[in-house]
Amino acid sequence: QVQVVESGGGLVQAGGSLRLSCTISGLTFVNSAMGWFRQAPGKEREGVSCISKFGYTAYNTDSVKGRFTISRDNAKNTLYLQVNSLKPEDTAMYYCAAGAYAYCSGSWSLGSQFNYWGQGTQVTVSS
């Protein structure tokens, strides 16, 4: 059984940083592309970033480029999202996702390539 568990969220002031972590078990971690998504209250889920099995990365929106960094530690079966220079509009529940694909498909941000999702970790940014 695949388990996906996020952690690292919290309440921070604008301009602050957090490192989100996602531990995945029950999946051949090293062979899987993984992604981070977020959903703010009243808004649709949004793809944030994706990383392939080889470490190639993709970011969905210009609003996070240069501020967010996705990475993975295959030895620890852990996915990370470093979020810097946080803004109030980054406030959302952040979800980690994994699946059988090795690459980030052209439509990864829609979430359809990912079979397994965590429960999310809340990030709240105060102004």
How would you describe what is shown here?
The protein is mainly beta. It has no helices and eleven strands. The protein has strands at 3-7, 10-13, 18-25, 34-39, 46-51, 57-59, 68-73, 78-83, 92-98, 116-117, 121-126. Strands 2, 4, 5, 6, 9, 10 and 11 form a seven-stranded mixed β-sheet that branches. A four-stranded antiparallel β-sheet has the order 1-3-8-7, with no helix packed on it. Strand 4 and strand 5 form a beta hairpin. It starts with a strand and ends with a strand. The mean pLDDT is 95.
Q: In summary, what is this structure?
A:
By secondary structure, this protein is mainly β.
Average pLDDT metric: 95
Which regions contain 5 or more consecutive residues with pLDDT less than 50?
Answer: none
Terminus-to-terminus distance: 40 Å
How does the helix and strand content classify structurally? mainly beta
E-strand count: 11
Which assembly state applies to the chains in this document? single chain
